[in-house]
User: Which sequence fits this backbone?
């Protein structure tokens, strides 16, 4: 966890004053020791409801080395009239002899309704030029995302946070055409995608990609989107035609078409699962191979049945936890995953009456 | 609707469409066998690397580890030792469930390496793994033993038909040192390649697994601004330094037989030189990258015995001060013979005789117990042809120098001349610095995590090829032989200092060693 090395605060302040204070804090730290160097990786703008800002601060503190080099948090309280701010710079730890210590900056700005129209003019002077900017609005506020989009190269969303999963997919679909989207719901499926990809990686297994007969995904009740994205990923990578899935959110079924073959698709919510994300995946091929992956202690527990023989093994891997997922989301904003948008497009096709 | 992006059938079968976009590429199911499983390298590096791969979910399905070493012990005892090593040396605090899952697939085979029965038992263990998995698993044999055992193990693997596996790949990973002379390296290559194909062999130089070393290629070949200057027309000299502030610690047994030249220059530092001097590869594939490095090594004239005194310097640290403490001299270190003539400092001046580099000296130096720990490459550009400014009252206008720091504080700094604020036009050198640590969020994985993964994937880009290792020895061996014939006494340098005075004799004309 970072320790706060220097703090500045002011009431009724301006972006210029905040920026000047940051420069001064950095100069002071650098004068104390040349080993202190400011991180220059990523700006992150977070727009949060004031009532929940403590929770967001805790989540962001937990991301450790994935902390944006400059984090600008707008803490929003509708009735607030005055713009107050606090700026902090912190190093994870003091510099070891001969090594550098990275400084990260955090600015918390308290704003109200009256500041929203000109929010860009508050944020813009505070983002470090030539450094990519990630935008995150964990409490909704799509209008604010719209306002600040011009400053951002990527937007962080968590589609499982949306109360209606179809709307989450619609919202992400609308965003993805305009900006790079990092969806934490998608990142929760990463280990599963890696494992399915590995299963079919040996050349002798690849022809079986054309033999997949059914895929069923088990998920946390709030993580339908993650499950849909996983199916969407398979569909988009394998060129399946997909249509609307039917049923209740707790159990959805559908069919994809892979040339002359149908692929049965199923999603099932598992109320017992405690954490967001996926609980399990079962994939069957026409030749009778059956592969099941299930979340469990120490990693993914695998059961494979082929030609009547069953094998079980553990794929070790530590749970990243929700803070780990958030940190990964911040890191991913500096990369570009070409498979999310097609997976999202397929997921959208599976959740609407009108294909595509 | 048909959802884009899918690949036509034939292509899908040639490539894995599901691997597209994944940061971590699939690794085939593998049984990894470590020979020398109770050794220091295994405990400090290999086991922690394997744990961290497991923690990240980066080990393949059906991953099994088999330790082979001399001492008799039960599987359970070996697992306990693995657990202790991981707890002590892992860069992360282990997740108990992950650690348990990893250790469940660990077995131990005891015996001396030239005992046929070891390989029979090993064969059975590996076959059992295959049977449990229901498929033949890839096999990787990691030789982390004393080098004398390398050919013995390789030949026993061949004799017991463990060098191939129907329906799966078999790979051989060989730790350094790969020979102690050119002749030994050639002989070892011959014996290894009599059993294994070169595509199966992965010779470790762990420097190549360091992000910082890979960054040299990114720096050179992903940035257009440096390449026009990267030649004899603009570059005056290149200095490559790998300095340690520590002594030999507990490595006397190994180090006193190796010495600084073999320990670092023959492998790691020549790799750094290759990264600086190589031509841009056509593609970033193992063969193309290694082809270019071999060309550089072959362009370095091998010194004759008569050349050696003029192009190589060696010395040994004497007692001195380091980090505010009195420290002993090399021959006073535990385990070092009092009459040892092993060098703890070596410096050489090399030339790369090709169109790009003819006439540019490459100074390479390494040593223990120097003023501080640093590994860097300093490229000094030629001075400006004409200076309009007076140099009176200033430190003088100095040539631009580009420094690539490999460790610690990986970064790039460029020395520039700048005007000192004031009424007069006085120039002094200033430094424009970039630190990689400030520009990335991710923590670099340990070199061994990358190298083990690459070996299991069959990607040899970061491993040394047979002709490459012999080309390295071709440069270094004449120095080794000459020094062997003139054993000493060696010049001394005070611990904590910049090294021996004699190192200055290697420098041409106006060149100076950078301060360590």
Assistant:
């Amino acid at each position: 966890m970072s320790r706060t090395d220097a703090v500045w605060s002011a009431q009724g302040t301006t972006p210029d004053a905040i920026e000047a204070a940051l420069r001064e804090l950095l100069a002071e730290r650098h004068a104390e020791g040349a080993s202190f160097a400011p991180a220059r990786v990523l700006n992150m703008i977070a727009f949060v409801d004031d009532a929940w800002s403590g929770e967001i601060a805790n989540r962001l503190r937990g991301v450790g080395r994935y902390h944006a080099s400059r984090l600008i948090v707008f803490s929003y309280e509708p009735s607030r009239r005055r713009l107050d701010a606090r700026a902090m710079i912190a190093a994870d730890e003091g510099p070891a002899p001969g090594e550098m210590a990275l400084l990260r900056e955090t600015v918390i700005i308290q704003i109200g309704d009256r500041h929203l129209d000109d929010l860009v003019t508050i944020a813009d002077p505070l983002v470090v030029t030539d450094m990519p900017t990630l935008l995150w609005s964990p409490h909704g506020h799509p209008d604010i995302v719209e306002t600040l989009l011009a400053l951002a190269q990527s937007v962080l969303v968590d589609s499982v946070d949306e109360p209606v999963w179809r709307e989450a997919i619609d919202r992400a679909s609308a965003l993805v055409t305009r900006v790079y989207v990092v969806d934490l719901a998608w990142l929760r499926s990463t280990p599963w995608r890696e494992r399915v990809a590995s299963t079919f990686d040996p050349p002798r297994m690849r022809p079986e990609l054309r033999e997949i007969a059914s895929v069923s995904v088990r998920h946390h009740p709030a993580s339908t989107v993650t499950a849909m994205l996983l199916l969407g990923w398979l569909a988009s990578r394998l060129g399946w035609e997909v249509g609307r899935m039917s049923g209740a959110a707790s159990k959805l079924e559908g069919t994809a078409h892979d040339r002359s073959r149908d692929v049965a698709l199923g999603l099932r919510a598992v109320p017992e699962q405690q954490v967001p994300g996926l609980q399990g995946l079962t994939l069957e091929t026409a030749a009778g191979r059956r592969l099941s992956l299930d979340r469990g202690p120490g990693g993914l527990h695998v059961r494979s049945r082929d030609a009547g023989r069953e094998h079980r093994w553990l794929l070790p891997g530590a749970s990243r936890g929700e803070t780990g997922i958030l940190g990964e989301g911040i890191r991913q904003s500096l990369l570009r995953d070409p498979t999310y948008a097609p997976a999202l497009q397929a997921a959208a096709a599976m959740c609407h009456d009108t294909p595509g | 609707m048909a959802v884009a992006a899918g690949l036509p059938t034939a292509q899908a079968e040639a490539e894995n469409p599901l691997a597209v976009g994944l940061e971590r590429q699939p690794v085939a199911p593998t049984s990894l066998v470590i020979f020398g499983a109770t050794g220091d390298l295994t405990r400090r590096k290999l086991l922690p690397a394997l744990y961290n791969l497991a923690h990240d979910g980066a080990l393949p399905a059906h991953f099994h580890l088999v330790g082979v070493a001399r001492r008799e012990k039960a599987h359970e005892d070996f697992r306990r030792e693995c657990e202790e090593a991981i707890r002590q040396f892992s860069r992360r605090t282990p997740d108990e469930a992950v650690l348990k899952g990893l250790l469940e697939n660990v077995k131990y085979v005891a015996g001396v390496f030239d005992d046929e029965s070891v390989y029979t038992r090993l064969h059975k263990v590996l076959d059992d793994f295959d049977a449990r998995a229901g498929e033949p698993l890839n096999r990787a044999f990691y030789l982390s033993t004393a080098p004398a055992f390398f050919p013995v193990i390789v030949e026993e693997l061949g004799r017991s038909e463990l060098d191939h596996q129907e329906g799966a790949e078999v790979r051989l990973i060989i730790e350094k040192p790969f020979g102690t002379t050119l002749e030994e390296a050639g002989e070892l290559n011959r014996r290894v390649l009599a059993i294994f194909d070169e595509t199966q062999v992965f010779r470790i130089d762990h420097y190549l697994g360091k992000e910082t070393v890979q960054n040299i290629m990114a720096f050179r070949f992903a940035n257009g601004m440096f390449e026009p200057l990267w030649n004899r027309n603009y570059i005056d000299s290149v200095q490559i330094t790998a300095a340690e502030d520590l002594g030999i610690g507990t490595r006397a047994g190994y180090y006193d037989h190796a010495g600084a030249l073999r320990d670092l220059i023959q492998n790691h530092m020549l790799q750094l030189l290759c990264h600086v001097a190589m031509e841009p590869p056509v593609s970033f594939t193992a063969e193309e990258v290694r082809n270019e490095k071999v060309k550089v090594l072959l362009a370095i004239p091998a010194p004759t015995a008569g050349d050696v005194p003029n192009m190589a310097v060696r010395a040994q640290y004497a007692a001195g001060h380091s980090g505010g403490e009195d420290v002993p001299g090399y021959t006073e270190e535990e385990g070092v013979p009092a009459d040892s003539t092993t060098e703890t400092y070596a410096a050489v001046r090399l030339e790369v005789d090709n169109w790009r580099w003819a006439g540019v000296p490459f100074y390479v130096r390494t040593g223990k117990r120097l003023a501080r720990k640093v590994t860097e490459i300093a490229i000094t550009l030629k001075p400006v042809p004409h200076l309009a400014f007076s140099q009176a009252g200033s430190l003088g206008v100095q040539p631009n120098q580009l420094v690539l720091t490999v460790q610690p504080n990986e970064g790039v700094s460029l020395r520039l001349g700048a005007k000192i604020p004031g009424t007069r036009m006085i120039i002094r050198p200033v430094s424009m610095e970039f630190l990689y640590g400030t520009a990335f969020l991710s923590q670099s994985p340990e070199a061994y995590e990358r190298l083990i993964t690459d070996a299991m994937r069959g990607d040899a880009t970061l491993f040394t090829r047979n002709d490459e290792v012999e080309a390295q020895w071709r440069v270094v061996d004449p120095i080794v032989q000459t020094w062997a014939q003139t054993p000493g006494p060696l010049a001394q340098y005070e611990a904590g200092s910049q090294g021996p005075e004699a190192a200055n004799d290697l420098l041409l004309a106006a060149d100076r060693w950078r301060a360590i």
Summary: DSSP finds 13 helices and 17 strands in chain B. Chain B touches chain A through 55 residues (CB under 8 Å).
